Amino acid sequence: MTFTSTCLTPPKGAARPRFARAGAHVRTYKADAHALAESRLVLQFRTDWAGREPPLEGPSSVTISAVLPRPKRLKCETREPAPVKPDVDNIAKLVLDALVQAGVLADDRHVVDLYVSKVYAAPGEQAHVKVWVTQERPVRTIPTGR
């Protein structure tokens, strides 16, 4: 089983949770920008997953390609690595949380293989996030060190 989705919004990273006092209690909430980015991803993933089986369970492989807006200073005509914020781990957190909320994955603990790339868009290309989820035995192997 393979799932592929492209969300035409600039990649964002997961933000830290926010806290607010409410009398003797403390309330935890997501920042507005984080909640908006997550809801856009969830909406796109739900649309692309519609009519399929229940959420994927078992070992899954996830590949995330984050294409950031191209800065005007770049002269090259191709995609280039983007060593800027958001960090790839925060992009992965946001995307995995959205996959779970959209019902694509039962739980992000099922992800056993994760690859995230972050590049600047090519000239004329729109910033976007593309996600591939494959439920099967992971392709990459980890050396045992023997």
Q: Which short descriptors sum up this protein?
A:
146 residues; two-stranded antiparallel sheet; 60s Ribosomal Protein L30, Chain: A; alpha+beta
Task: Describe this structure as you would to a colleague.
Strand 2 and strand 3 form a beta hairpin. This protein has one domain: 60s Ribosomal Protein L30, Chain: A (2-Layer Sandwich), CATH 3.30.1330.70. The protein is globular, with a radius of gyration of 17 Å. 22% of the residues lie in helices and 31% in strands. The chain has 146 residues and is α+β, with helices and mostly antiparallel strands. Helix 1 crosses helix 2. The protein starts with a strand and ends in an 11-residue tail after the last strand. The longest helix has 18 residues. It contains two helices and seven strands; from the N terminus they run E-E-E-H-E-E-H-E-E. The strands form two sheets. A five-stranded mixed sheet has the order 1-7-4-6-5, covered by helices on one side. Strands 2-3 form a two-stranded antiparallel ribbon. The relative contact order is 0.30.
Summed up:
This protein is an alpha+beta fold and 146 residues long. It has one domain: 60s Ribosomal Protein L30, Chain: A, CATH 3.30.1330. It has 2 helices and 7 strands, in the order βββαββαββ.
Give the low-pLDDT segments: none
CATH homology superfamily name: Holliday junction resolvase RusA
Number of helices: 2
What is the string of SSEs from the N terminus onward? EEEHEEHEE
Strand content: 25-35%
Number of strands: 7
Question: Which structural class best describes the helix and strand composition?
Answer: alpha+beta
N-end to C-end Cα span: 33 Å
Radius of gyration: 17 Å
